[in-house]
Amino acid sequence: MASVQHNYFTARAYCFLIENAIAEGSTRLTTALLPVYVSGVLTAFKEDQEDMVAYLQDTLVMLAQHYAPIDSLKATVVEMSSDVDNHEALIKVLWQVLVNSGFQVRCCAAGLFEHVIKGVDPELISSKVVPALVTLASDPEMMVRQYTIPAWGMLAESVTDNALLGKVKMQFQSFLDDQIYANEHSLLLEMVKTLGEIGPSVEPKLREDFILPRLAAIASTNNNSTNETRRRDLATELLEGFKALSCCFFSDDHLTNYMLPGLKCLLTDIDDLGLPDKVCYAVISGMLVDGPFLNVGCGV
After folding, report:
1. Under DSSP, is residue 80 helix (H, G, I), strand (E, B) or coil?
2. Strand, helix or coil for residue 120
3. How far apart are CA 59 and CA 53, in angstroms?
4. Phi/psi zone of residue 298: left (φ > 0), alpha (ψ -120 to 50 degrees), beta?
5. Cβ neighbours around 107 below 10 Å, total
6. Nearest residue to 72 via CA among 64, 117, 42
7. Using CA atoms, how far apart are residues 250 and 263, in angstroms rounded to an integer?
8. What mean pLDDT, rounded, does the chain reach?
9. What is the dihedral of CA 184, 273, 269, 272, to 10 degrees?
10. Distance (Å, rounded) from C-alpha 235 to C-alpha 232?
11. How far is residue 3 CA from its own chain's centroid?
């Protein structure tokens, strides 16, 4: 009992030190000591897991409320998530701040889910992670919703269950199609970035029947954008997405109906906006000429 109390008060004292360091503008504690202390000390006391959960929750709230860098917290979560015995505790930490009144705290939680999902038991994914992400994806603050997108992407890469993949697809469709997101440029950028990043590693059906067609449709719409800055931003992300997908196998129908039209639209953006990537311009032009052989190479 004495060791539990000592460990608890040590953790509280460390939180106090972090708060003072943040107030003084120092980030040394938040970037170096946190993962060492949590991973090297707190996780060694398995019987004190509730104190560890409370400590991590306090730290998350404190860092978020002070708009401090959370690199240390991400490193801590990544390190802890490598041990399956910590998964439930980590999810509990994030679960308990879903309804925190501070939107920055909820943003932080949404962003950290991405680093927890890989390797988590499917039952825990279904019972805790997905409901938490659904809650955050319907948050009153648009920024919180946007912060969930990488986590949904990680979920798509990590699971094979059709029901879970269906929920991921449904959420992606909502972000892309619901009228409430029509003018949310940064959210659309995050969606395109995430779809491009996960494209090569998700289930083929999701890649072929959803990711490629949606990127092609976004490329087509982007050609007609009257906002040059937004058009340039989106074209840059689309270029990365099509680069990634060019490593994947697609049927002739998918090449003809989606890949090649998408590349043509992207080429128009590159030409109209004077994007500086001349190498990509040349290679995309060549891909359009040699479209049937697209699957032979790897990458734009």
Report:
1. helix
2. coil
3. 10
4. beta
5. 21
6. 64
7. 14
8. 85
9. 130
10. 5
11. 38
- Residue 1 clears pLDDT 60, i.e. is over it: no
Q: What is the reported pTM?
A: 0.86
Q: Show the tokens assigned to 118.
A: 């890989």
Residue type, 233: D
Q: Tokens at residue 290, please?
A: 């040699």
Q: DSSP character for 226?
A: S
Nearest to 191 by CA among 226, 222, 164, 161: 222
CB 202 within 8 A of CB 211: yes
- Please give the torsion angle defined by the CA atoms of residues 74, 78, 83 and 89, in that order, rounded to the nearest 10 degrees: 30
Report whether 112 contacts 77 (CB < 8 A).
yes
The pLDDT value given to residue 277 = 58
Give the integer Cα–Cα distance in Å for 251 and 183. 34
Q: Give the tokens for residue 166.
A: 């269906």
Sort residue 299 into left (φ over 0), alpha (ψ -120 to 50) or beta: left
For residue range 82-119, what is the model confidence (pLDDT) as tens digits? 999 999 999 999 999 999 999 999 999 999 999 999 99
Token pair, residue 183, equals 């003018």
Q: d(Cα 185, Cα 234) in Å, to the nearest integer?
A: 9
- Give per-residue pLDDT as tens, 102-111: 999 999 999 9
Smallest CA-to-CA distance from 176 within 205, 140, 152, 203 is with 152
| Dist CA 27 CA 11 (whole Å) | 18
How far apart (Å, rounded) are the C-alpha atoms in residues 214 and 230? 18
What are 182-205's pLDDT values in tens digits? 999 999 999 999 999 999 999 999
Structure tokens at 70: 């959370």
Residue holding tokens 């060791």? 3
How many Å apart are CA 178 and CA 182, to the nearest integer?
A: 7
